[in-house]
Design brief:
Layout (H helix, E strand, L loop, with lengths): L1 E9 L4 E2 L4 E6 L4 E6 L5 E2 L6 E2 L2 E7 L1 H7 L9 E7 L6 E2 L2 E4 L2 E4 L4
């Protein structure tokens, strides 16, 4: 099985995005875990453990995070759907975030 981590970088300030809630659901919509980014914008383990092969949806609750900072934003949430096929390696899904754009990639 494979672990899952994430981090969020605020592209406006170039700093980590602390206090952003992230949740993980499986392909059936069952919530498997939820956590908040730490002071470095990271979540070391979204589920607190390993996840088996399958399709998952990682949702970053960006609207409330921007609202708490009194920043206008276009995306109330960002959902990244990805597949875990190689359970021998760790999976890392980072998010580079601004109020009107975002990008992601498969990290290591």
């Amino acid at each position: 099985m494979s672990g899952l981590s994430t981090h969020v970088l605020d592209a406006v300030t170039g700093l980590p995005a602390p206090g952003l809630t992230v949740s993980l659901r499986d392909a059936d919509g069952l919530e498997l875990g939820s956590a908040e980014t730490d002071s470095d914008g990271r979540i070391a383990s979204v589920t607190g453990g390993e996840i088996p092969a399958g399709v998952y949806r990682l949702t970053f609750h960006t609207g409330s995070w921007f609202s708490a900072r009194e920043m206008e934003n276009f995306y109330p949430e960002v959902t990244i759907t990805f597949a875990v096929t190689d359970t021998s390696r760790h999976h890392h899904v980072p998010l580079l975030l601004s109020p009107f754009a975002y990008s992601t990639y498969r990290g290591s």
